[in-house]
Each structure stands twice: as structure tokens, then as C-alpha cells.
User: Fold Heat shock factor-binding protein 1-like protein 1 isoform X3 from Galeopterus variegatus.
Amino acid sequence: MDTRGREAPGAALRSAAENLLQELQEHFQALTATLNLRMEEMGSRIEDLQKNVNDLMVQAGIEDSIKEQMT
Assistant:
């Protein structure tokens, strides 16, 4: 019995599955990179916001009263 006919569809299916997995991996890596970049940007924005809030608290003269409440 000739099994070459059976191997070809199996090989084609395997090749298609490998290509699909490779594409998924590439998309996942791109998504991961994008999310990491956005998280870094968000972290920078939060740090800037915290600094601005602290500056406003100093200007308003309420920083010392908050420190006193915490101790």
C-alpha cells in the first residue's frame, strides 16, 4: 500500500499549524512589547502626577498637617 498520499496531507496540516503558531507567537510578542511600553508610560505619568500633587500640597501648606496626622 502506498502511504505517500497520507503523508502529504499530514505534512501540509502540520506545516499550516506550525505557520499559524509562529504567527500567533509573533503577534503575542508584539502585543507584549506594546503593553510593556504603555505600562512604562503609565508609570511615568503616575510619578509625574504624584510629584505635581506633592508640589500643590506644599504650595497649599497642607503637607505639614498631613505629616502630623500620620505620626
